[in-house]
């Protein structure tokens, strides 16, 4: 059976555990895809190019014959892959780019093999359109602000364990947000894939209840926060956790001193122009002497001034929450107390 479904029904079926099959080329899939989707491409990248060239340079009929020539040789493998993906329930959700011939052709093949196929109307393009509209809705966001080394990510994790709604933007982006942010992280997704991960995360939340996020720049490494969400973040309630630099520096020594010196040196040089020649030279010299604490304090001077400028620029009003602890449990309680006592307008 083949059924054409809209994006909402498609996502509902996915939530129920029906596998999603992306029949686009590996290159399209690698760039960005619906999280959890399985790639069973009708055409490989070079094959897709060949069919597209036939369509542009000759006509539609020539493209069809080129496609049939390619697919005919691998129908058995495609059918086996579809059967494997369908599992015991023999059901699949399918899409291509715009819900055209690729998904229709694969649905026909899988249907012939006894699978039930739900084909996404409008394809992956409709998924992306729905994502953008979803992010335009108002969310009740609370921003956790704090200078570099304040442990905001750890607080986010503790809030999640506490049962609060959170979105770990840096976790989704595989980056900590600074020039040192890629150290110890997996390769970053594309911005489009980051948006897909973000959408998947926020779909499971109640927009009418508090959603905690870290204060971030628009760019987290190479990933860019969608404008629909970033504007809301700038206008959201903000709690600024204010921890002394000396305490933050000690924590950063623990986090970064174990990395290779050459990697740390490269990170310092990335911000060399912003640090200034003298500060950069001092920092590199301290690094070579294993004076990690002094090196980090030296760099924090720049990061702290930069963060405070950004905080005042992006958040018209924020509430300072002083702390002399690096314990994420303690600092989480400080932030929750401010919310519970209604010192933030709701």
Strand and helix map with partners:
Layout: E1 2-5, H1 7-15, E2 20-22, H2 26-31, E3 38-39, H3 45-57, H4 60-72, H5 75-86, E4 91-95, H6 101-112, E5 116-120, H7 123-135, E6 140-146, H8 152-161, E7 165-166, H9 169-173, H10 191-203, E8 210-214, E9 219-220, E10 223-224, H11 227-235, E11 237-242, H12 245-256, H13 261-270, H14 272-275, H15 277-288, H16 292-314, E12 319-322, H17 328-340
Parallel strand pairs: 1-5, 2-3, 2-4, 4-5, 6-8, 6-11, 7-8, 11-12
Antiparallel strand pairs: 9-10
Helix pairs in contact: 3-4, 7-10, 8-17, 12-16, 13-15, 15-16
Describe what this molecule looks like in 3D.
The protein is α/β, with parallel strands linked by helices. The protein has 2 domains: 130 residues, 3-Layer(aba) Sandwich (Oxidized Rhodanese, domain 1), CATH 3.40.250.10; 199 residues, Rossmann fold (3-Layer(aba) Sandwich). 55% of the residues lie in helices and 14% in strands. The strands form 3 sheets. Strands 1-5-4-2-3 form a 5-stranded parallel sheet. A 5-stranded parallel sheet has the order 7-8-6-11-12, with helices on both faces. Helix 2 links the parallel strand 2 and strand 3. Helix 7 packs across helix 10 and helix 15 crosses helix 16. It is elongated, with a radius of gyration of 25 Å.
Radius of gyration in whole Å, from Cα?
Answer: 25 Å
Q: How many H/I helical runs?
A: 17
User: Into how many domains do the coordinates divide?
Assistant: 2
Could you give the distance between the termini?
Answer: 49 Å
Annotated CATH topology of the largest domain: Rossmann fold
CATH architecture assignment name of the largest domain:
3-Layer(aba) Sandwich
Query: What percentage of the residues does DSSP assign to strands (E)?
Result: 5-15%
Class by SSE composition: alpha/beta
Strand order of the largest sheet: 1-5-4-2-3
Percent range for helical residues? 40-55%
Q: If you average the pLDDT, what whole number results?
A: 92
H and E string? EHEHEHHHEHEHEHEHHEEEHEHHHHHEH
The tally of beta strands, per DSSP, is: 12
Q: Identify the overall geometry.
A: elongated
Q: Which CATH class of the largest domain applies here?
A: Alpha Beta
List unreliable stretches of 5+ residues.
Answer: none
For the sheet with most strands, the description reads: 5 strands, parallel
